[in-house]
Amino acid sequence: MEPEEWVAHHAKVVEDNVVEISPTLLFEYYLVKAEEYIFATLLPAFDRQLKEADEEDSDGIFNTFSDNLAAIESVDTFLLSLLEKADSDDSLANFTKHQTHTVPTALALSLPHFSSAAVGFISEMFDEAGGQFDDDEESIDELLVDEDFPLKQFARLADGKLENLLEVALMQVIEQKLKTSVADQCSGGFDEYLLRDVLAPWVESFVFKFIRIVLYKEEEGSPLLLERQRQIMVILDRAFSETINSLIFDVVVQYPSSVPVLKDLKKCLHRSGMYPEFVKSLTAALKSRLLVPGATTEVILQLFIGCIKCLKIIDPSGVVMEAISPPISDYLRNRADTIRCIVTKMTNADEEQNELFDELRSTATPDKSDDDWTPDPLHLIPGQSVQTRTSAKDILSMFVGIYGSKEIFAKEYATILGERLLSSATVETQQEISNVELLKIKFGEEALLRCEVMLKDMADSKRMQAYRKTLLEKNEDVSEAQKFPLSATIVL
Fold this sequence. Notes:
The protein is about 70% helix and about 0% strand. It contains 21 helices and no strands.
């Protein structure tokens, strides 16, 4: 039976029996009948229509909500007409309970398809309100005062019956839209402050205003509104963290142009506490895209250096670096040419943008890192013991830590130095002398003693060569045949 027919039929019954039955008993009887009709007939029909509704048809969804809520309202209006004649406090209390508890609870339990339909409707309204970055944000201010905007009309219809469910659907839409918007913005590059300068201002200027259309009864600054705004910022932080985590390898590759996004991520991780997820994503990305047989040791070292610098921005304490370094260290340790590659780059002044050579030169500058000391985040990574962590103050210390010995690097440099000195009779040793002095600061004088002897031998050899040349030039009795080339190079 349709709602209009049900109301008309029972109104006629009441009219025919109003003299014979107590108004209070009549009201109580029809309160039970009305709830039976709502639960058994109206709500199942309501849910079937929601199930069949097209989520992209905002007009159809709105009409479904409007018509079914109007049907329930017509039954309540009939009950209210009986209540006016009952003149009983108990009856008034029962009717109040019916409207504020029984029906809303039944709606929440009997409409499993409400959420998907409401989410589709609100999503359409979000886009219509101008929820895109390239839309005119002034339109949202107009909609805040537009009483004919469908979302505001629906919010008024849901008031007292479906407002809690509607609010849940609203937050689901906001989460979906934020994730989509974050992904879209992060797809264009990492050379600007996407969170600080793009996403957060958009949330504050549009999203915060949009939710007020549904929460129309809340005044600006109300506790509920402030709580929802706080939840939205939490969602934004998590969405940004998750998106950048999924793109973290590209962020590392694009360093230093990606510094703005790294600084955004630093603040975001601090607020969201998603450090474990970040470590997991970065470790997985490095294993799948960097630590592979096809990558040369030089490329791996270069990206590892970039990773260290990125992590110094995100977590100056070094806890995250300590968490992700074991697989990289193990992989490099098992490569036969790792030490030679590190030492070669570390002592090669001719290579442009050589991070390791610049790092070696910086060892001559006093370390002032203690001036910027900050306490270690004790609970940054669950299970990570800060007390047992070896804190690396520079990149070279990270590489030395892979092997746990400075001597192995000093020996490798001695081998490379010998090869360089013997590769040409006119080799310039001034740069190598500078390298040895810097390496002595890093590895100690004793470890570089052999290299100093080699350089001294080379200097002695050059002096002997020059002395022989001078003698031959001054002695006129020496024939041309006796002026044969002679190398006096001696390297021990």
